């Protein structure tokens, strides 16, 4: 089940021009005549299907297509709402570059326009709740977090690459992820070898340490466990922590001692597309 937005360009668009534009936006790839979007940092993905026109009879055999007359933008339902937020940003940029008419046939959709990001979000959210309602009859959605929490994670991850480029290699900036612990759904970040890091505030930090035998030891530390040790070591606290230098060996040992060993029977990191807005799942139950 998915959301479909038809876009018909006012003038045919050269496929090379369309591809060059997508490349300038990052996270796009070609799949035959179509295009995919995959942001590995935020976890968001969607597809752009094309309707191409060629310049001669050979195009009847689906070859030598050079112009795009329309596209169909497709985003799956049963996803967190930031998927639609990120897609709306991309569609807004696409329509600013290539003037077009739209057709949004979804329940509460925009119809024949005009296009607005808010209109896309309204239509997608309505369809998303309907899809969750239908599919949850057979398999209830267990992984949920408040929308504000998911949006905070998405906003952190969405700006991560740019901030890391500006910061360079001197300090790591980890992703914020969803984390399952004994059926509880929480937020987490990974910290490797106690290296300098800009830690976001999360529920748990998964601290990894390479052993002399080549194995990796992982400790699961709650934020409450982490704070007193880092403050005592003199690291600056903001909404998270700015760890400006590598941890001393005794500080690393203290953190591992205060945490619990990572247990895959009880703990796992979750893919971004599996944790839904709590509000959407609640609305689907009414």
Structural account:
A hairpin with a 2-residue loop joins strand 2 and strand 3. The strands form 4 sheets. This protein has a 6-stranded antiparallel sheet with strand order 2-3-4-5-1-6. It has a 6-stranded mixed sheet with strand order 15-12-11-9-8-16. The chain has 2 domains: 2-135, Cell Division Protein Zipa, Chain: A; 147-270, no CATH class. Mean pLDDT is 90; it is low at 54-63. The chain is globular. Helices cover 33% and strands 32% of the residues. The longest helix has 19 residues, at 117-135. The protein is of the alpha+beta class and 286 residues long. The two termini are 20 Å apart. Helix 3 (117-135) crosses helix 8 (278-284) and helix 6 packs antiparallel against helix 7 (249-258).
Enter the CATH topology name of the largest domain.
Answer: Cell Division Protein Zipa, Chain: A
Task: Supply the CATH architecture of the largest domain.
Answer: 2-Layer Sandwich
Give the number of helices.
8
CATH class designation of the largest domain: Alpha Beta
Biggest β-sheet description: 6 strands, antiparallel
Report the uncertain regions.
54-63
The strand order across the widest sheet is 2-3-4-5-1-6
Radius of gyration: 23 Å
Strand fraction: 25-35%
* Rough outline: globular
Helix content: 25-40%
Features:
single chain, 286 residues, alpha+beta, Cell Division Protein Zipa, Chain: A, six-stranded antiparallel sheet, six-stranded mixed sheet, 17 strands
Topology:
Layout: E1 2-14, H1 15-25, E2 28-31, E3 34-38, E4 45-53, E5 67-76, H2 82-97, E6 100-103, H3 117-135, E7 144-145, H4 147-158, H5 160-167, E8 177-181, E9 184-192, E10 197-199, E11 204-210, E12 216-222, H6 223-232, E13 236-237, E14 241-243, H7 249-258, E15 260-261, E16 267-270, E17 276-277, H8 278-284
Parallel strand pairs: 7-17, 9-11
Antiparallel strand pairs: 1-5, 1-6, 2-3, 3-4, 4-5, 8-9, 8-16, 10-14, 11-12, 12-15, 13-14
Helix pairs in contact: 2-3, 3-8, 6-7
């Amino acid at each position: 089940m998915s959301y479909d937005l038809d876009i018909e360009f006012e003038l045919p668009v050269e496929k090379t021009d369309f591809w060059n534009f997508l490349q300038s936006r990052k996270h796009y790839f070609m799949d035959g005549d179509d295009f995919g979007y995959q942001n590995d940092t935020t976890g968001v993905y969607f597809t752009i299907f094309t309707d191409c026109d060629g310049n001669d009879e050979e195009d009847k055999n689906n070859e030598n297509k050079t112009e795009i007359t329309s596209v169909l933008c497709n985003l799956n339902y049963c996803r967190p709402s930031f998927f639609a937020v990120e897609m709306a940003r991309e569609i807004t940029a696409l329509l600013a570059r290539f003037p077009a008419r739209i057709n949004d046939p979804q329940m509460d959709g925009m119809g024949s326009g005009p296009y607005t990001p808010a209109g896309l979000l309204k239509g997608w959210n309505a369809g998303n709740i309907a899809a969750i309602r239908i599919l949850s009859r057979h398999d209830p959605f267990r992984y949920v977090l408040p929308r504000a929490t998911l949006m905070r994670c998405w906003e952190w991850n969405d700006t991560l690459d740019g901030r890391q480029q500006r910061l360079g290699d001197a300090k790591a900036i980890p992703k914020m992820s969803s984390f399952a612990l004994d059926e509880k759904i929480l937020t987490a970040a990974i910290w490797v070898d106690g290296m300098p890091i800009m830690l976001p505030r999360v529920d748990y930090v998964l601290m990894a340490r390479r052993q002399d035998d080549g194995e990796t030891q992982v400790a699961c530390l709650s934020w409450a466990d982490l704070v007193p040790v880092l403050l005592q070591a003199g690291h600056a606290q903001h909404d998270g922590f700015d760890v400006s230098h590598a941890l001393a060996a005794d500080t690393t040992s203290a953190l591992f001692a205060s945490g619990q060993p990572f247990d895959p029977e009880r703990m796992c990191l979750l893919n971004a597309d599996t944790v839904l807005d709590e509000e959407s799942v609640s609305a689907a139950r009414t």
